[in-house]
């Protein structure tokens, strides 16, 4: 028995439990906490694109069944009733009682049962069957591609939310440091230790960074809206659970490229397109081939016996029908040429996609390496910047340096922290790109060994 599994098994079993927890959580809390796995569950479950792809697979299966019926005999039943105004008749004298013969009857009834079975079609049926099966395979690959794209969008949206939340946290911490500096300048100004310019400078910096913080909150709102869209616009409030983490990975570029060429659904789809074009070439070449079919019929009608026109008479027939096309206006040749051109196009498309996949992986790996180096360097920069800020702040309180030196130290620390977070995000995004290229997202969720395994 064939099993059909269009969704990631573990994740979709957990989706049922997640919905129950969400229903319970709405009565307890205003926000539902969602992990990455929860987000993937909801997105794959609610995706309209995935549902449409499922319907396309079902339609393709029905198409295969439809084409397969052409191999079977067809049976038709035809019944007619005809009223004729005049019927030819003649009378022959026969002794004392003349005999009248009538050709037919005014009320003619005919019932005809006919069976027809194709025996030879020049390869048309086999080519049509192969094309329909390839169409089903293409729809399955399209479904896998849709699921992979959905996962890709969820990962991007999920980590974008985490990025903006982290940026808000860092900006809030930096704003708190600046407010503390402002308070120190106010105390020192009140004591007559510094000019008012120092106070104004600290105040302006606080207000400027407060405005930047509000702008970042707007960016967070935008990323949350995008995530909500990828999740299917759930009708409840949620908050994302997780954090940006640096998880180094060991990769071999050539292995990634080979793996991508083996598993990428779009690359495999081009191979299917090539096979489809080959079958279309066979179908086009069969247009001028002869057809042979068997037919048989059983007929019941009246008006057949001139001595008794109203009597119903039955009859049957059987035979072979051979049809040989002699000239089709060169249509077969043109169809063959079209199919050959399509084969050439798919060959070029496959070469182009192979180069695009190679470039995609090479660029993602380069970004990954750059981000890893940036993370390591910024960790040391942050440590140095924090110590410099501590020393500078103490020196300002002692009157050794100005508030401008403290502000510079604060901005240096803030930039180092932002660059570190951005490097973390770039590293994660590069891993997402590589995962998309090889259609394996297990770096982020162990259950996502492939985009959507489908058993046929």
Number of strands: 8
For the terminal residues, how far apart are their CA atoms? 10 Å
Q: Quickly name the level 1 CATH class.
A: Mainly Alpha
Estimate percent helicity.
Answer: 55-70%
Structural class: alpha+beta
Question: How many separate domains make up the residues?
Answer: 1
CATH architecture: Up-down Bundle
Described by the principal axes of the CA atoms, the overall outline is elongated
Named CATH topology: Outer membrane efflux proteins (OEP)
Percent strand: 5-15%
Descriptive overview:
By secondary structure, the protein is of the alpha+beta class. The chain has one domain (9-81, 102-438): Outer membrane efflux proteins (OEP), CATH 1.20.1600. It is 63% helix and 14% strand. The chain is built from nine helices and eight strands. The chain has helices at 9-28, 36-46, 48-68, 124-190, 196-230, 253-263, 265-285, 331-397, 403-438, and strands at residues 31-34, 74-83, 89-92, 99-102, 107-120, 237-240, 291-301, 313-323. The strands form three sheets. It has a four-stranded antiparallel β-sheet with strand order 2-5-7-8, with no helix packed on it. A hairpin with a 6-residue loop joins strand 3 (89-92) and strand 4. The longest helix has 67 residues, at 124-190. The chain is elongated, with a radius of gyration of 39 Å. 26% of the residues are buried. Residues 1-13, 24-29 and 449-456 have low confidence and may be disordered.
